[in-house]
Amino acid sequence: MELSRFVPGYKVKKTTSLIPVMSDVHSKWVYKRFEGASDGVIDFKLDETTDPAQNVFRIRSMRNVGFDGGWHRLKIGENFEVTLEK
Questions:
Q1: pTM assigned to the model
Q2: How far is it, in rounded angstroms, from Cα 15 to Cα 69?
Q3: What residues form DSSP beta bridges with 83?
Q4: How far is CA 42 from the centre of its chain?
Q5: What three-state secondary structure class fits 74?
Q6: pLDDT of residue 54
């Protein structure tokens, strides 16, 4: 399982890794265990309640760091460069 192989390996190598996980595929227990082994959880979603729809993200949890947990809009440029919309 990823928790026992990959997550400790990143800490030993002193590297950062983003591991994408799709929600509602596994049980809530699996997600809670994975999140508990991670240093942070960042959520991305397409907000279809606005017109036009907006790509947004938030930091749900981050160890040992203060953060703003609100949803923030992302702007995708013509060259697919992603920036934080102010």
A1: 0.72
A2: 24
A3: 75
A4: 2
A5: strand
A6: 93
